[in-house]
UniProtKB/TrEMBL annotation:
Domain ABC transporter: residue ranges: 380-616, 1033-1271
Main location: membrane
Name assigned to this protein: Bile salt export pump
Keyword DNA-binding in record: no
Organism of provenance: Notothenia coriiceps
Membrane topology: Multi-pass membrane protein
Family statement drawn from the similarity comment of this UniProt entry: Belongs to the ABC transporter superfamily. ABCB family. Multidrug resistance exporter (TC 3.A.1.201) subfamily.
Domain ABC transmembrane type-1: 23-345, 711-998
Compartments, record wording: Cell membrane
Keywords, in A-Z order: ATP-binding, Cell membrane, Glycoprotein, Membrane, Nucleotide-binding, Repeat, Translocase, Transmembrane, Transmembrane helix, Transport
GO CC terms in record: mitochondrial inner membrane; plasma membrane
Residue stretches spanning the membrane: 20-43, 102-124, 180-197, 203-223, 280-302, 707-730, 750-770, 831-851, 935-954, 966-986
InterPro entries per UniProt: AAA+_ATPase, ABC1_TM_dom, ABC1_TM_sf, ABC_transporter-like_ATP-bd, ABC_transporter-like_CS, P-loop_NTPase, Type_1_exporter
Pfam family, one: ABC_tran
Amino acid sequence: MVATPLLHTTFRYATGKDTVMMVVGGLCAFIHGVALPLMLVVFSQMTNIFVEYQIEIDTLRDPSKECSNNTIYWKNGSIYEPAQNSTVYCGVDIESKMTIFAYYYAGIGVVVLFTSYFQIFFWVSSATRQIHRMRKDYFRKVMRMEIGWFDCNSVGELNTRMTDGINKINNAIADQVSTFIERISAFVGGFMVGFIGGWKLTMVVIAVSPLIGVAAGLMAMAVSRLTGRELSSYAKAGAVADEVLTSIRTVAAFGGEKKETERYDKNLEEAQTWGVKKGAVVGIFQGFMWSIIFFCYALAFWYGSQLVIDTKELTPGTLIQVFFGVLAAAMNLGQASPCLEAFASGRASAKNIFDTIDRKPEMDCFSEEGHKLDKVKGDIEFHNVTFSYPSRPEVEILNDLSMQVKAGETTAFVGPSGSGKSTTIQLFQRFYDPKRGMVTLDGHDIRTLNTQWLRSLIGIVEQEPALFATTIAENIKFGRPGVTMEDIIQATKEANAYNFIMALPQKFDTMVGEGGGQMSGGQKQRIAIARALIRNPRILLLDMATSALDNESEAVVQEALDKVRMGRTTISIAHRLSTIKNADIIIGFEHGQAVERGTHTELIERQGVYFTLVTLQSQGTPNKSKDAISEAHEDAIHLKSLSRTSSQRGSVRLRSESKLSIHALSESLNIPSDYEFISEKESEDVADEHVEPAPVARILKYNKPEWPYMLMGSIGAAINGFVTPVYAILFSQILGTFSMADLNQQREQINGICVLFCIVAVASFFSQFLQGYSFAKSGELLTRRLRKVGFQAMLSQEIGFFDDPSNSPGALTTRLASDASMVQGATGSQIGMIVSSLTCIGASFIIAFIYSWKLTLVIMCFLPLLGLSGAFQAKMLTGFANEDRESMEEAGQVSSEALSNIRTIAGLNKETFFVESYEQKLELPFISAIKKANIHGLCFGFSQCVLFMAYAASFRYGGYLVSSEGLLYTYVFRVILAVVMSGTAMGKASSFTPDYSKAKIAAAQFFKLLDRIPKISTSHAVGEKWDNFKGEIQFLNCNFTYPTRPDVQVLNGLVVSVKPGQTLAFVGSSGCGKSTSVQLLERFYDPDQGRVLIDGRPSQNVNVPFLRSQIGIVSQEPVLFGCSIAENIQYGNNTCSVSMEEIVEASKKAYLHDFVMTLPQKYETQVGTQGSQLSRGQKQRIAIARAIVRNPKILLLDEATSALDTESEQIVQSALDEARKGRTCIVIAHRLSTIQSADIIAVMSNGAVIEQGTHDTLMAKKGAYFNLVTTGAPIS
């Protein structure tokens, strides 16, 4: 294994059949490789025949000579001996000889056709089969890993490995190997032909050829290194773009557009410098290579002609055979090096993947080992357990924890967040094993029990339940295989989900969307409870199972849970203490230890952890209904669809920002369900089809400032185009010199031609460099300009634009990355390719028609085929992988869903289900890949043999013209070389056309974005501003629907006003339009009817940046940017630079300062992407500090404390009360205790205010608000 890492590991999935296929394919590749050197042998003999014939013709022009018995005699009968004292042979039947050569060529062509077909077919299909096995194995292995392993390997990385990583291996073991064998055999064959023909000349050429090899190698290295640098600096810019677009609402609310564009552009600048460097390096090396090749020609022809003329060691034919043999060998060696690169990257990927496949999981969920107890009572004990997560081994979560949970009892865990409550549950599910100590079930250490069996006893309902993207019924079935519909209905009834499911148009067949995104929090929760119940578990784990619900649903779900708890061991974790008062035992946690246990009354008397939490929570609540807004309404307005994607989308408000899916629409409109699946991909395709390709003129207009570069580049390209035809002339001229009678004249001509070769060498060095550098520079500048302009255009769109699924952050960042670089494809180096191909083709045809128009016409018949074959080879380099990629997408969706929800799957024992589903999705791509191997092979074979056929026909006809029309043989060579070479050039140029048309379409999409006029202009020039902004707000009869859901009326005649300095609180069930009104105020949207007045002016006429600069916002899930705490707070004011004093001042007001000072890096601490390094409460306080730094006249608080536990909530609440002083404030809250001090409380329902007043007046009124506070009844 160690000795041959490449073969042994990379091909470890090959069966006997695969091995046979690879061996046969390798043989074919070898034979294919030898074909080129063989052709050279034929070519050399043919050249000799032509030279002899020419000499005979020239000699017989003298009337005093005649030909008899194949020898030339003087008329007087003596044998004719020219200066070299040798007889001159004659009577060459050039036509019959040419016919024989034509047969040779055609024969070689047929062999090539077959061998190249088999070489590709066998290798590609055997690779496909091996990769198929590898994918299955890898996924199965990943699904077996313990949860701790997933903590250390990001899901994104695993997904990339499953796609890109395995594709790289595929690349390394498929046609690349056969191509490598073919090129190496051509390399060996070329040298052999050279040494057989003439060893001296071969040695001379060999001496020079390493230079070419070295140059090619260096170039490849330099290019890959520079590309890597360019990509990584672009990746930084892409990360900026992604972060900004994901948090677009926050960026807009704080007016950070300009700042973000600059941050993006700064990273682009770096990418641009590397790109230009890459262009320069490629130009220099290309120039160097070409000049070496031409110097090499000069040297070889000069020395070779010495050997032909002076020492007679070579014939003209063998000179050509040697020279081209060695040259072909060198070229093939050079072309073999990209294959080595593919092997290297394949081996690197293989190492990663095989390491995973060979790793032994610490807890194997597929294994049959471990006991299964016959009878389970359900006693759970923790004995001195110490534990820290594998991803953060230095932080101890549980610290010598000991406790017991008795069978059949309900035990509640309480304690501040971070005290290890949820961790104990994960240890019991055996997601992790404790570092020290042990967990026992009925006295057995759970490490000795069978994992699958253990998990089958447990039903778990989590705080944020993960649902899978399938129907409700299927989701519930995940709980237990083979359940009947009756069981499902029973479970949903118990979980209080039956009624809302039956209210949906498709009932149990309703799709829940990716991650359950089409369901509201409460609905997801109840489906998850039904899924847990259907398992009929012995042990029930409830991790904040009711946290996402409003009072009424909570009461019902709580009742359902109370019912099902009977006779089961239940562990319940909750932040809302009201839900666990009636537990049998309550255990208080602190710092990873169980510090107290007892019943509710016992613990209240003890006045410990539990007592503190209870007193904190009951402050300010006149009765138990703490968080009292009902979402009973939500089943009707079931369109909350807070999908996981949107929840990261910008936080100013998520609830109303629906990621519109057709499902949601079809439910509200009762569209028949065949509309069900217009997936995002298709909708994007639909968008693509209508794009008219952009006119090139407009693309070039963006490139206008670089016209000097483009002119220089085109001049260089034109010179490069002339090189090929010039080469054809010089080469045929050399062949022509050998038939001259006068030796001195021969020498002079050859020296002259060699000097010309040197001149061409120098010229092509400069022109190649000029072309490479100029176009790289102009292309990179264009790409950067387009990206920047595009990003600016995106940021200036109104928020409604981002609600459209086809403008999701992912889609937009991809558009920035790929469209801009594709557009470069239409300008940059493309123009160079096109110019040089055109000059090459033009010059070649002019030459060809001047020397022999008949022969030119014959060869032209082959041109389309040659062009096709050139295009094919170019396609081979790029094409065949991309097509597979698309068909792999379905399997990719399965794998990414499985990996993202790995905990849920492990808890449900559903690993095998996903493995099988993944394997099933792999079948189709596998079958189509095998089919493609066939087509791929045929095309390759055809493109390889065309050249031989073209030679066969054109030389045969050339022979006829030489004999019957006296055409000079040099002209035959000249015409054939010129046309055939221009044909391949044409093929190369045509292979660029797909890129070119892609570039035009990409450009069109880009321009469509640039030309889009935002419905709400964020320009600083539009709209009015005024000096003494007071902050008086009035909503007058506002009606509003979201642009993506025009059929759902969100605001319905909203009337409410607030005076400067007052606090207005909105209460109401979710979906009644509370947050929407906030978004209208921020001018993320404008009302459809009615007006929003700010200081008496209609909001539509107010300057948007000015308005937003007066507003500070703190939302439910604040979005932080991946920079330091200080920078995040500074983001509050993007108009000027915020000093450190102001930052500290603001964070003291937000009760954040003390916490920051405990961190090692204080204000320079990085918060991680989206603030992931911080707890919810800490993020929330940073967001408050950010709003305070802004010093706004209007403060918007959108459920700013709902996500916090009691302790943090108290702190944040006091911070908010501090911030509200002297400002107009709008508060949205689910917890009524937080808004009793408001000046106006407006109760909303169905998009309108149904009653308003202070807390006391509303309580006295005994209306909707009174009911809410006292009973938590829903607002009708």
